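Work package 3, deliverable 3.1, input record:
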Amino acid sequence: MSHSLHGTFVSEKINKIRWRPDSYNSHFFVTGSIDNVENNIKLWDFCENVEEDDIYPFLVYNLPYCGDITEIKFINSDFFASSSSSGSAYLTRVIPSYSESTSLKNEIEWKNIHQFKNGDASPCTSVTVYDNDIVTVGEDGSINLLNGKSSKILRKIDDADSCSIQCVIFLKHNEILTSNLRGQMKIWDLRVQDSNRPTSTFMISGEQVTPTCLTYHPTQRHLVITGDDLGALTTWDLRQNTYPINVLNGHEGAISEVQFNPEYPDQLFSCSSAGEIWHWTTKGEAVPSLLTPNVETNVWLAPDNVKNKLDVFTLMPTLGKPINSLDLNRNRVICGCDNEAIYLINGVNL
Amino acid sequence: MEKEIKTFLIPNDLCKRAGIAGTWLALDQISVFAYEKRNIRQKDQPSHFASTTQSSVFHLRQDVVLFHPILRKLVNESNGVFLAIQSLISSKNADLRLELFKISRQYRSIIRACLENLQDEHTKSEKSDEKLELQNYITVFYSIECIWHLCEILFIDTMPGNLVLSQLLEWVSFHFPEYERNAASMLAENVVGLETRSEYWDTVLGALLQGRIKLVRALLKQHSSSDNSTYRLAEQILKAMPTFNGPGGSSLNELNMQWRHWTMDVQSKIDSKLFSTEKNLDLMMRLIVGEEKAWIEIQDKCEVWYAYLAGWLFFTEPTVKSFELGQFAKRAITKLRMNNQMKQLDKVLLAAMEFDIFQVIKEIQHMYDNGWFVSHLTDLLYHCDRLCDLEKEVPDFSAEKLRESFILDYGTTLMGHKSLWQVGLTYLDHCPNDGLQVIELLLPRIHMDTEAKAQKVVREAKNRELNNVVQSVCKVQGMLSMRRGRLGNALSWALKSQDGPFTSFLADEFLQNYIKSGRLSSTDLLDNLGSGMLVSDRLIFLGKYYEFHKLYQSGDYREAAALLISLLASKIIPKYFWYILLIESIPLLESGDLLFSSNDTFTIMHCMEEKKDVPELKDKLDILRLAATRNLSRALTFEAQIIE
């Protein structure tokens, strides 16, 4: 492999790390810390030092944050939504400046939108975005529908789940998928008012498995992959959702995040609590067969032997500590870890 | 070992009058409060210090310097190296010595990086107390670097034949780089007449004492009188100095002989007063031949005794062996009259030169770095087999136990930190004797404010097969969920750890709630219990009962009735729930369609008569009996028809 690895110790554990999406391929990214006495969201810039052939992150702005950062999702290049273990959610703006350095500012603060009945704050465990729509979920089992243009809660589904909801993603503009501690996955239609019942419910597997991350296929949005706390990747075709299409046992620990490569949708990146970060690619050049044109070309939808069709590359020697988050921008992968370091893997073979 | 006891005063009047007591709050905190001591003979009554006015509780925490942001980088980075050693040892690498040397270099480069960060921050900082704090850290880690480097030379990267001088000089010039720096900047200007600089001769002498002869010659060449005969002579002498090219070159005896000839030559030139016109050159030459008076002249120029020592050895004992260092070091210290001014750093360095590893370890464990240095160095020396000799020398000494006790302490300190607990775990993992037990005690005490963190802790416990920790963490999370009115979530946690008694307890809560409110909660969860329900009988009952409920509500009376009978026949119904089941059987008994066979009805009647003393059933008993008899008559008639 020809990629290069650059690690930097940052004196705090990073729970979420995201490239700032923009068309001109900048090097900005944000990190959210966890387990710190005072947590924060930081904006960084990867500076390339051509002379020394070195790349290092340069801190651009530090925004203090209340609680652990449990998720960060960019809406566009200037706005991102984040969720906090203090039960709040924030919409933050990246403010470019010609005179000073770029800064971050909270545009909207949805304070304490997740709360238990006894008054305890409930961690907001995840947030997902679709255009300006934002959905948050929490340990209190409720779902909030927010919008980036309003500081009000548009809709709240109280007691949506009797277990704590841990992950959420948008499937369509009106549909979200949630997963809970018990391993139940539920699809919710946000248009249906006055109901706190999901449109469908299914289980990730028989026993005691908690999904730890969800993602959908970049071009076939009905194809969803879940990573779970036992290290398995499960593929679902939501057109027929009761049973998974296939289950790949891979990682040693819980899978912290999975992400498809939007440019090469067959490829997937995953990282785990055992300190692994992997790049899944299809084996060789899949020759399109003329004889069987109707065969499903998406390898992830293959019901069996999917393992034989995939190559797995490790992007980094296994760390002794969990890798909590990863993000991809073209051929550059960044990840944030529990050894209080962030890593840039440059020039990943795609 | 002398014990240092530190006293902290609790600034509180009540505490002063009543006395205090303390209790562990978290891993790293003690809570102190006013408390009057009682003994068993005293009467059990409120203390007369008790009052309704507000009183204070004090939380005390150890100040751990390693938790400073810059030092956290050191902690994390060195943890990676520490783990690398442990896997190196278990992999039985062939060239272990070389690998361990590399590791030692890695540690040193981490310390160096840390020092640079500290220095940057020190320059940037504007607050005076912050500056002072950083300056303290710099001093501590500078000493650590210096000691580590010397230990590396003496104990880890040992040269064949125990020849140590070249490394020793390297060590001195690494830690006192200003001569080299000054020389470089002077030479870079490339002008003649450098002697006009105030630091010129100090630099020349400094370079000479560090054995940098080439540098000395280069500097002398830039002297404005370098063409004069005295300077040319000095240049000749320095050029002719015999050099030692490591063990592969000329033999030691040969070198000694050459050296003797050379110094005799220099001495004769001094004696014939060839240098008398140039005071500085004269001094240099007299130093070279080891003239006592000359060395006394320059001893004030040496910042530290070990710089003096290295220079002196270079000219008088070029083939000094590492095990002879101690005696020369002592002599140097006496000469410099430093015996009574030895600082901690000096003591450690001397102990190292005397090969007294035990003393080195003893001294460095009191450094102000929370045991970072002593645990990492001891671990490294242990793996270099440098501690096993001590076992013979020191009674009741076990190298393994010493290493473990430092690592255990260090790991425990880190476990007390909100973020560094995982790093602490990896140290405890490598304590073969007590590590696991300590983990077992500490892990459940980690502060868990989110489920995500609880899951991380559970995972760490599972990785170490600490099932009782898994259970206790899950139970705490479950109880917390229950207090927050999230019974379903509590049940999920109970099922996660397969905790039978706790699951039963929660299932009882569900049923009791049903009795009170007439509604079953968390039905989305009960719907999908699967085989998880086998953990406890009570949960099986809850699951089955919920199934009964669903059937009943959807109008599947026949199946509901069948399920009810099988429940009644089973032995898993909780006592307090009997009457609910019996009462709920009434509408089924009275249903238009015949749902119970005569046998079924007998089962119901049997249960009913058995439980007739249950108070909740009292006013329903008549109706129940009536419904049962009516159903029985219908069933008997019906069954009789079928037989016919």
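Chain B has a mean pLDDT of 89.
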